[in-house]
Amino acid sequence: MEKATVREIGEIVKGKRVFLRADMNVPFEKDKRGCTIIADDKRIVASMETLRYLLDKGARVILCTHIGRPQSKADKHLSTKTIVSRIQKLLPDRKVFHVSDCVGKKVDEAVAALKDSEVLLIENIRFYKEETSNDLDFAKKLSALADYYVNDAFGAAHRAHASTEGITRFIPAVSGFLMEKEMKILGEAIGNPRKPLLVIIGGKKVDTKIGVFTGLLDIAETILVGGGMTYTFVKANGGSIGNSILDIPSIDFCKEVQVTAKKKGVNIVLPQDSVCADRLANDAHIQIFPSDQIPEGWEGFDIGPKTIEEFKKHIAKAGTVIWVGPVGVSEVEAFATGTKEIAKAVVDSGAVSIIGGGDSASAITRMGMQDMYTHISTGGGASLEFLEGKKLPGVEALLGMGVQIK
């Protein structure tokens, strides 16, 4: 990664104001009492290294994040106030304040009151439509809150928003440790992977992964296909898929990518058999069919036992595994076997193992295997675009390595 990092400002931030853009977009759930609680705090935890570093260096940190996709300020359940207590718990020796706005007099006063090594969490940045439109007047107001800018929000790096791109036009901008780690590991995985490189691509629809297929065809030796997208490939090859999910606009792509892969010497492996059911439920009637011979009234929800064994053989030979998307409906226990078995096989292979965020990351976390992988990306959309070979606006906007920062 040839971008300046927070280390470049570490010795000059004491007493200075630092705008830290993090990605603390955590999911919520209801507890037994009906109260809203954080379901998974890994994104908050992942931001702590950079936040702690800045605080230890004496910076006055203005912390910014988005939560969900609010339509307006009326979506109070998406206020950053809901995560203050968790941040404070992770920083027991520091003061963490909250202000219910992002710009304006109230925020200016709260920033002015900050002391060295204290944190001010501002309101959900997406409460402002100017954020997603990358309004430069709004970005300038954000920049006026601080002397330096640090972007540690890899999960939002593929968005050219006011707090990820616009603000960098007004104050010195560097990356945080999480951003640096994501770019380094993903960069090495596609730029200089331990061979052979095996890619597992799952998920519901092909159209969301077309770029990944295209981007990795030149560097992968093997691509294992699973999840709902299996059936679009099967249909493209003339098979019968019953009531299984079908991404009709992507049928031609499925035909073309297999032809291209063959020319490039890339082995695309489709599931031989599928775990099928009459409906998506744990108590559904379940039967295993060849993936290209699924009768009407049945729908494929997981890879079958023959496929699991075949996939395991390929995984065992891999030097690097990049996994994007679960291979079955893993959140439903009856159809989670394929994802569980593949997850174990990846760990057992000893390969460099990278999970590309999103649903596959959630599946690994549910299984309690997150610490067994080399890297689990915090950014679903961002990691996909990076693997596609796209440049990320939030990264491109940062200062280059070696630039003198005052």
State which percent range the strand residues make up: 15-25%
Work out the helicity level.
Answer: 25-40%
Number of helices: 14
Q: What would you call the structural class?
A: alpha/beta
- Output the radius of gyration: 23 Å
Oligomer class: single chain
Cα distance, first to last residue? 21 Å
- Average pLDDT, rounded to a whole number, is 94
Strand order of the largest sheet: 5-6-4-1-7-8
Describe the main β-sheet briefly: 6 strands, parallel
Uncertain runs: none
Can you put this structure into words, describing what you see?
Helix 8 (230-236) crosses helix 9 and helix 10 (305-316) runs parallel beside helix 11. The chain has 14 helices and 19 strands. Helices cover 33% and strands 17% of the residues. The mean pLDDT is 94. The protein starts with 16 loop residues before the first strand and ends in a 10-residue tail after the last helix.
List the helices and strands and how they pair.
Layout: E1 17-21, E2 28-30, E3 36-38, H1 42-56, E4 60-64, H2 84-90, E5 96-98, H3 105-113, E6 119-121, H4 129-132, H5 136-143, E7 148-151, E8 173-175, H6 177-191, E9 197-201, H7 210-216, E10 222-225, H8 230-236, E11 240-241, H9 251-264, E12 267-269, E13 273-277, E14 286-290, E15 293-294, E16 299-303, H10 305-316, E17 320-324, H11 337-349, E18 352-355, H12 358-366, E19 375-376, H13 380-387, H14 393-396
Helix pairs in contact: 8-9, 10-11
Features:
406 residues; alpha/beta; six-stranded parallel β-sheet
Quick summary:
The protein has helices at residues 42-56, 84-90, 105-113, 129-132, 136-143, 177-191, 210-216, 230-236, 251-264, 305-316, 337-349, 358-366, 380-387, 393-396; strands spanning 17-21, 28-30, 36-38, 60-64, 96-98, 119-121, 148-151, 173-175, 197-201, 222-225, 240-241, 267-269, 273-277, 286-290, 293-294, 299-303, 320-324, 352-355, 375-376. The strands form five sheets. Strands 5-6-4-1-7-8 form a six-stranded parallel β-sheet. The chain has a six-stranded parallel β-sheet with strand order 12-10-9-17-18-19, sandwiched between helices. A three-stranded antiparallel β-sheet has the order 14-13-16. The protein has 406 residues and is α/β, with parallel strands linked by helices.
